[in-house]
Amino acid sequence: MSMPQVTTGAGYIAKIEYQSFVDGEGVRCSVYVSGCPFKCEGCYNKAAQHFRYGEEMTDTVIDEVLEACAPEYIAGLSILGGEPFSNLKVVAPLVQAFRARYGRKKSLWIWTGYLFEYLWRANDKRTAVMKQADVIVDGMFVKSLYRPNLPYKGSLNQRVIDVQKWLNTAQLSQSIYIE
């Protein structure tokens, strides 16, 4: 299977969950981007596969998300999809604004169907976004590998990667997992 080359997307988001208890550690603000080239069988967010589903991302929406992250009890921002790394038109400015406002005081989690190693080796705008993340959950959802109650993922092939620990080790062969 060849990897999809879509990177910028159409600039839409499917929804915002202002207080999510399942999209990472702690209470989080979750942004679901629109558009996904993978179309995994059994996807729980099928409507968000279309690149123009939902509403267009604007500076006003970014400000709204940042304000939603402001309360002390919000641990950080989670970006899901659709496919975030096929939607850099939404994700890159959102991540940049989030880090500018909160630095490393709040965490950033990103889910992707791509493998971490593939995105890292691309050494492009997606890699720059990855470096800003604290945690990346990688791998496409595989229906036959689905297990209920897996922490932060839907199927056994997916990995929960502590990006900052990985960057500190600088060894791709020693990806560090939270679980």
User: From N to C, what is the helix and strand string?
Assistant: EEEHEHEHHEEH
Number of helices: 5
Anisotropy-based shape: globular
Give the helix proportion (percent range).
25-40%
Low-confidence stretches: 172-177
Proportion of β residues? 15-25%
Question: How would a crystallographer describe the biggest sheet?
Answer: 7 strands, mixed
Mean pLDDT: 91
Radius of gyration of CA atoms, rounded to a whole number = 15 Å
User: Quick one: how many beta strands?
Assistant: 7
Major beta sheet, strand line-up: 3-1-2-4-5-6-7
Secondary-structure class: alpha/beta
Terminal residue distance: 29 Å
Describe the structure.
The protein has 179 residues and is of the alpha/beta class. The protein is 26% helix and 21% strand. It is globular, with a radius of gyration of 15 Å. Residues 172-177 have low confidence and may be disordered.
Helix and strand topology:
Layout (H helix, E strand, L loop, with lengths): L11 E9 L6 E7 L21 E2 L2 H10 L5 E7 L7 H15 L4 E5 L4 H7 L2 H8 L2 E4 L20 E4 H7 L10
Parallel strand pairs: 2-4, 4-5, 5-6
Antiparallel strand pairs: 1-2, 1-3, 6-7
Question: Which terms summarize this structure?
Answer:
alpha/beta; disordered C terminus; 179 residues
